[in-house]
Each structure stands twice: as C-alpha cells, then as structure tokens.
Amino acid sequence: MRRLIRLAVVAAVVAMQGFVPGTASAQPAAIGSAQSCQLGNGIKHVIYIQFDNTHLTRDRDGVPSDLEQMPNLLSFMTSNGTLSDNEHTILISHTAGGILTSLTGLYPDRQGLTVSNSYGYFRPDGTTAFSSAFKYWTDKVDDVTATGANDPRPNMVTTGGLNTPAPWVPYTRAGCDYGAVSTANVVLENTKTTPAGDMTKVFGAHSQEWEEALATPALAQTDFVGIAIHCAQGGGICNTSTKLRPDLLPDEPGGYNGFNGLFGAKYVNPTITGGQHVVKDTENHDITDPSGNPGFPGFDGMFAKVSLGYVAQMQEAGVPITTAYISDAHDNHSLFRASGPGEADYVAQLHAYDQAFGAFFTRLAADGINKSNSLFVFTSDENDHFAGGQSTDGIWSHTYCNISAGQTCPANQIGEVEQNIKALVPAADLPAAFDIHFDSAPTVYVAGNPARTDARLRKFERELAAARAVDPYVSSSATPVMLWMADPVGQQALHMTNADPQRTPSFTYFANPDYFLTTGDNRCIERPATLNVATCIDYHFAYSHGDATEDIGRTWLGFVGPGVKNLGRSGQTWSDHADIRPTILALLGLKDSYEPDGAVLADFLQTSAVSRDLRQHHESLVRLRGVYKQIAAPFGPFAHDSLVASSHALGSGSTGDDGHYAAVESSLASLTSQRDALEAGMRTALTNAAFGGGPTTEQDLKRMIAQGQQLLSEASALAASS
C-alpha cells in the first residue's frame, strides 16, 4: 500500500466500492487526428495493470487467495496466456520500488528508489531528512531549502546522478500516446508548491494550476494528481486539447524534445470523453473525489472499477498504451483498519473487483479490443506477510493489545507488532542520535554518517542483531527480532546502493515481518496518549512488506496477447519485476536507449515473437539468463547468501576484536565486485540478443555461465562459513 513513513500525509476518506455492478458503457470519445503507432506482432493496444499487494497464494489455509476470489481475471490469464507464480519483487520491497522496477526494467540502484515509499538522506551536516518516494518523474528530493542545498538530485536518480530514463519514451517516440492511471511517478503525485513540489515542476510557480494548489490543495489533487497522458508527436488524442504542457526530460538518453503531456483529470477527462468533465467507472457511476468533484478520487480510492473505467475510456478514445494501478483490497478505508483473510468486508471487496474485471473484459471485447490484437500484462508490486493469528471462520479481532503490559492477545488477533527500536538496545549502547525509515525492514541513519567500521556503530549493530522481544504470533516469550542485516557492503550486493550517495543508510535491519519498527513508543490506538508503549499490536495495518522473506518477495505475473504462449499457470521460470519491461518491448518491436537489468522472458513467448539471435542461441541464452538472475536478482541466491554472510558478520565480534567482521566483509566486497563485472557482461549479451547489438559467441556465453556458477558456489561457501 502507499503507506508513507515519517511524512505528513493528508488522506481522503473514500467510500467503499459497491458490490453490484451496473451496466458498463463507453462514453463518447474525442478521436484525434491520425497517428502512426506501429507495434510488433500485430499488437494494437497495450494494457498494463499493476495491483497493490494482491495475492495469488493463500494467506491462511482454507481461505481462497485474492486472485482465486477474482475468477474473471484469473481465468482470463490462465485460459488465454501465461500466469507465472514464480515472479519476484526487489529490495526494499515496497509499492514505489516494485512498480518502478517493473516500469523501467532497472533494479533500485539504477532507477533510484533503493528505499521506499519514503526514504532518508544525510544532509551535508550529517543530520537526517526524509523525502517521499512518490513524486513526478523529474521532481527532486524533498528539501526545505529553495536551492536544494541539502540534496539537489532527482528523486528518480540513476548512474551519474542523472534523472532515470522515463518509461513512456519508447512508446511516444514510436508515435503512441501513453496513458497513465495512478501509475507511480508517471503522473503527478502531490500538490506541493515548494521548489521540489510536483505542481512547481510540471505547471510552474504562479501558474493558474499552481495557484489553485496553493489555495485549495484538496481540489487541486482531484484536478491534477493521478491521471496523465504522455503524448506522441504527429497527431493523436492530445491534438484536441489546449491544455498541453511540455513533457521535459532533460537527461533522457538520445534526447527528448518537442513532446507534450496532459496532466490531471481536469484536462484529460474532456480529451478522452468528447468534452465531458467526468469519466465513468465500470459500474457506469461518475468517478469523483469524496466531495463529489469529477476527477481523481485519491490513490486509496483507485479500486478496480475506477482504474479499469479510466483504462477503458482511454483505450476507446484512441490512447493505445495504458498503464494503471489498482489499490489493495485488504485495507478497509472506511473503518480505517486492515481486514483478515476471509473477513466479510475483504471478501465483498474482492467480489467487487471480480465484477469490475468481468465488466471490463466485456466492454473491451465490444470495442474490438481482445487477446488477438492487444497485449495484457498483470502483476502486483509485491506480496505481503500477513501479521495475525488464526481464524477458521473469517472473524478477526481488531482490538488494542498492549504487549509491553503483558496483555494476552486473542487467538484471532490481527495487526502488526509495533516496536520501539530503542527499547531493544540498552540506552547506553544507542548512538547519540540516529533515525530510521519506519518499516519491518528499517533503514538506519546514524548521525554524522560514520564509517561502517566506527566502534560505536558496530556496537549498536551487534546489540540489534541479538535483540529479542515478544511477538505474540510466534511465542509468549521473547524471540529474536532480526532475520538479517546489511551495511553498505551487503547493500551493494542487494542492489541497494543509491546513485545519490547521501541516501545510502548506515545499515538496513531486516526484522521478522510481523514487526513494524519505529523510534518512539507507539499508541496502536487512537486515544488516549497515555497508552503509548514500547510494544503493541496495531490492527490498522496487518500486511507487511519491505522485508526479504519469500512470502513478501514472491508474487505473480500474467501475460495475454499476440506472441504469448498459452501455458496456463506455471512456476517453471524464475523471474522478477525487472524482466517485465524488456519482455513487453520485445513483443512490441521497441527498445530502450539503455540496457535493462531485466531479461526477456523467452520461455513465455512464441518462437516467432522473439529475435533471430534469441532463436539462434536459444539454449545457451536461456541458461545464461538463468545464471544471470541467480547472481543479479535481489531475491536470487547470490543476494540471499550475501545477506546471510553480512548478517553473521555484523552480529559478530566485540569492541576489542572485530576481525571476523572485517574478514567476511572483505570477502563479500570482493565477491560483489566480481559479480558486478560479470553481471554487466551478461546484461549486455542478453540485451544485444533481444534487441540487436554486437553478437556474443557460444564460447563467450558458456564462459560467462561457468563464471556465474563458480561465483554462486563461492557465495554459498561464504554464507556457510561466516
């Protein structure tokens, strides 16, 4: 979910989605002048849908999973294409990072969001500041200084401190308008009028839109946030609007000049409806904000019926490429709490989602948009760990549970274990000042940004590695809090070292995902303040992510359309979110101006749909891709072994003897350096084979495969001996 940590957020109250769909119907569409949008494999439409925390696997035995309760979608994928249950996200595994790796094909160290949905950074004076990860693509780090003196870099930052390449560029260069519905950082994300605010970046200070945001930010969110069209040149839907803004990407590889965009429902809605100011959802209801104003209902209000209604309207209006976000179904935004597996409101929401997909597919089919001419891609940003007890009847306890006072929670309790991290360590061993990104896997920023070998920092790490607390879902007695830990050496192996050096934390603490760690006592209930305690159960949140566990990292991916094999549900091919983009582009006959970290999922594609080089060296390239993912992926075995070794090293030693830590870290740094070099060579070979470039010989392919296998063996040995 879009849970922003350490930041003040204004959340709109959004009414629950209705349970019975009405008749979905298309609205009049304003069709622009002819546009040359030529895609490969006979594909005329691309519909990319990314869910927030929506599960294929079950959270509790006996309760059907999210997708099992959406048979219209599940059957569409398994009957017409390929649904992989062996897809993985990235670290840190949160909404922003997962979506943006999916959109760019880049791991976090190259797309910029190594920590999300917000992150810390060191100011020049060594203190810590925090920024939202959700910002428009070209916006900068949140900074209170007008000149960006604390951190002047883009939020989306890549190698060299440049702005990360934007995901819509290959499409608009090919003459295809690109519509975005609540898609992370492709749309405006906030109404801030500060120098690092989205309104300032896109519309400019003192523009009409900027002034509206200053005077009425809630209305400005409805009007300008969440919806956008990035326009191609030479005709198309955007030619009908007088509200275009320059689509500026000054760091884009190969240049990007003369392109425009439409930002916000106030300008997009009339363009895609023939002049009407409101778009209908799949139940034929007006899409409005909580006050009834036509436009964006807020990110938590992007239920399936809303997002799919916008996608259908854009496609009908002639926008051939659409991306959309659908909010999770397990958070009750009316009661402001989480819902457990099988709980009535959760089941009803999933039924509404299923009905929305049924109406969506029927509506598209009536428009002639179907699997024969359209590429459909579905996935989730990440999976979740459900923090809760047991229930056999779908009834869960949403009660305040004070663990610090020894209170016994009901067996069917739901909610994260909120834990003050300072209570885990003797006060004398705490750094003089530090801050964290509140999370189940918090990144820790020690004031002054000391060297990783600093004696006081090392003592703090050792104390946290040994910390124990009561997790009532595990035991009534204290158990270890930590699963793993990584400092800058380990973070490099996990693709968590940011191109902005000010954002690299002192270390990352991967806790048992039942926990949500903070730097102060927690209330876990609205009132009174006297209930603030070190450890309690917060029933408002129960689905943890960010951590490095299998139930969080492993998710699902579905492809349907021309060139896609009909494999049904399959777990044969290991993949992660970086692979989605190159696979889509390969099917469309497009390519990026950079090498992606992902590789084409050739196993999912028909032979005729892949390049000649992929066909010619198919066996060796498939083997190379397999080894490449094992050494490169944040949830691959090299990363896991690195995390194990790093954790053992960080928990070892004493103030008088830290030799084991130094030795393991040295070995891990050496292995990671070798990995980085080999990964780059493999990445080039895989990219060239899929998209054209210098050929790689069979001999070179086999050499890299052997080197990768040797590297995996050495990483495994280091983990075992650490």
What would your notes on this structure say?
The protein has about 725 residues and is of the alpha+beta class. It has three domains: about 45-55 and about 75-385, 3-Layer(aba) Sandwich (Alkaline Phosphatase, subunit A), CATH 3.40.720; about 400-545, no CATH class; about 615-720. It has 19 helices and 29 strands. The strands form eight sheets. Strands 1, 2, 7, 8, 9, 10, 11, 14, 27, 28 and 29 form an eleven-stranded mixed β-sheet that branches. A four-stranded mixed β-sheet has the order 16-25-17-24, with no helix packed on it. Helix 17 packs antiparallel against helix 18 (about 660-690) and helix 18 (about 660-690) packs antiparallel against helix 19 (about 700-720). It is globular. About 60% of the residues are buried. Residues about 5-35 have low confidence and may be disordered.
Short description:
The protein has 722 residues and is an alpha+beta fold. 30% of the residues lie in helices and 16% in strands. Strand 20 (468-470) and strand 21 form a beta hairpin.
